[in-house]
Amino acid sequence: xxxxxxxxxxxxxxxxxxxxxxxxxxxxxxxxxxxxxxxxxxxxxxxxxxxxxxxxxxxxxxxxxxxxxxxxxxxxxxxxxxxxxxxxxxxxxxxxxxxxxxxxxxxxxxxxxxxxxxxxxxxxxxxxxxxxxxxxxxxxxxxxxxxxxxxxxxxxxxxxxxxxxxxxxxxxxxxxxxxxxxxxxxxxxxxxxxxxxxxxxxxxxxxxxxxxxxxxxxxxxxxxxxxxxxxxxxxxxxxxxxxxxxx
Amino acid sequence: xxxxxxxxxxxxxxxxxxxxxxxxxxxxxxxxxxxxxxxxxxxxxxxxxxxxxxxxxxxxxxxxxxxxxxxxxxxxxxxxxxxxxxxxxxxxxxxxxxxxxxxxxxxxxxxxxxxxxxxxxxxxxxxxxxxxxxx
Amino acid sequence: xxxxxxxxxxxxxxxxxxxxxxxxxxxxxxxxxxxxxxxxxxxxxxxxxxxxxxxxxxxxxxxxxxxxxxxxxxxxxxxxxxxxxxxxxxxxxxxxxxxxxxxxxxxxxxxxxxxxx
Lengths: 247, 135, 117
Hints:
The complex is a heterotrimer. Chain A has helices spanning 35-46, 107-112, 124-130, 137-143, 154-158, 160-164, 171-181, 189-196, 210-214, 221-241; strands spanning 4-11, 21-28, 65-68, 71-74, 88-91, 98-100, 103-104. Chain A is an alpha+beta fold. A five-stranded mixed β-sheet of chain A has the order 2-1-5-3-4. In chain A, α7 crosses α10 (221-241). Chain C has helices spanning 7-38, 46-54, 56-84, 91-113. The mean pLDDT of chain C is 94.
């Protein structure tokens, strides 16, 4: 006898309702199906009006983040059988405005990311003559885990400060800044300091740590932020104790 | 961003964050309790200063302090404070390794070693303090 | 010219205070808050404790502990009020109350531990 499971999915159709509602779908429970497969089944066979984002279905594009049974998850990396016998609640990612059904507005993140200049910054005059830039494996290890970010924003959904403080840069943005600060090829740490060492930057973080728990790629943004606090604090100490030093 | 729905620009749903956002989730609740432990850290300062002041005022004042600390309400308060202060210490030592990068001879010191060093220091300092106090 | 920021230095006080409080308050509160009042071990005499407290190194350690722990409370409590009770709009009042309180407590601690003992 085929097994089934119920999905309780948030619907939000702004053209006819002012609040989200919940709609139930009963889908087959296949051992190998992820929640995303369940949603695709709903859209293909049961209700073509359901709206949601997805792409690679293998945990690298960062598109399919949603709130599954209260937790921020990649739906392509979350299996139906883990929630047997169900039902499974599927809601849009928290802390973001909802555009429609499970689709959220991520423009805020997209505007904050470039503020920390997440690219290699080098001396412009020297660049043309440099050729290859060499880096040892040990130097790469310094920043490697922060380079694993897929911009899925599960960390933003998990972080209460993101929900409370509109200007807070957020875990992924700061972790990505650190990815470049710690890269031996980068010379831009001073430029990023003015953006990061602010109330909207690292000082807004109170080390709840949920961002690291939610991250599907092991980036540890909480660690990146706390480590940067020490860096920024050391810079501040130096600016007071050694004021003649050029930044 | 218009608040009204127009045909090609949807009205985004933006719920306000509840004041009780931290109640529904265990990890958030533990976080807020950890933050509230700071109140009991402040109380510990007050209690310590009461002791120091009593000591400086002589034997009778010290005896009054001891009587005060034996009062059932004071005892209950200090048991709660002790629980929170120990909770603060444990969460602090467990989180510290995540917040620091320590290198020994070029290699990164593992997190468990950093935490272990904190706990060891805690045990040694506590033993020293107890030895000094008990005399 | 790099901006001179105070918040990072306040954070350094918070961090040092958190470490100091974590290391020393459990044993102090255990002994003076529970073990001695409950009578499990008889409390040490006033003369002995006074001589321990008067020792210069003890005074400095206790003063450092009190000052740092107070600023640890001030910083953490400030953010607890911002996030827990969503009182960010009262920011100036909270900052004055928390750090002002910590400063006042530090002055009292300084008086009790240095000339007072």
